[in-house]
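note to self: dont lose this again. the chain is below, predicted strucutre after it. 200 aa total, dont forget to put it in the shared folder this time
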Amino acid sequence: MIGFLRGQLLQKHPPALLIDVGGVGYELQAPMSTFYALPAVGAEVKLHTHLVVREDAHLLYGFATEAERRLFRDLLRVSGVGPKIGLALLSGMTVDAFLLCVEAQDVEALVRVPGIGRKTSERLLIEMRDRIRALGEGVGLPGGSASVPGDGGATAEAYAAMVALGYRPAEVTRLLKSVKTDGAVTEDIIREALKLAAGK
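---
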């Protein structure tokens, strides 16, 4: 099992990352909460990782904090929840916000996350109730964001990232029309769009 990676950040196109570790390029997928905390391309980065082995592929997922990885792993143990839903959930809310949802048994907050229906939300709340104690005190969403070259391409990258996270193209288009994109970097555009999607 690969526990973490430390190396040079070569590419970041949400939700995909490419990290050079000793001359080997590792491809990862990461939630937006991790993207908000990434340094600029070319800088050194360390990410906690989780490897998913399938018949047709080995998929590596990266997380800025151990709390995010622990929650991701716990989510995968819930029936009907796969890595895509796990990434979408961590992109739509912080670890703390999810723990509060479970404590309050707030189905409506989870239903707002793309790809999570009411039945899955109810199952998550029931199955995670006994596990959240082990998660401990979560961490808030990192506030920093690194620059992404090209203002024109930032909106397109944000669109592609949100579609990859499970949002419908028409919904993404509607959300992005309501977000100020002039001069904004990709992570900031996605952050604002996710806030609108969550009704915040």
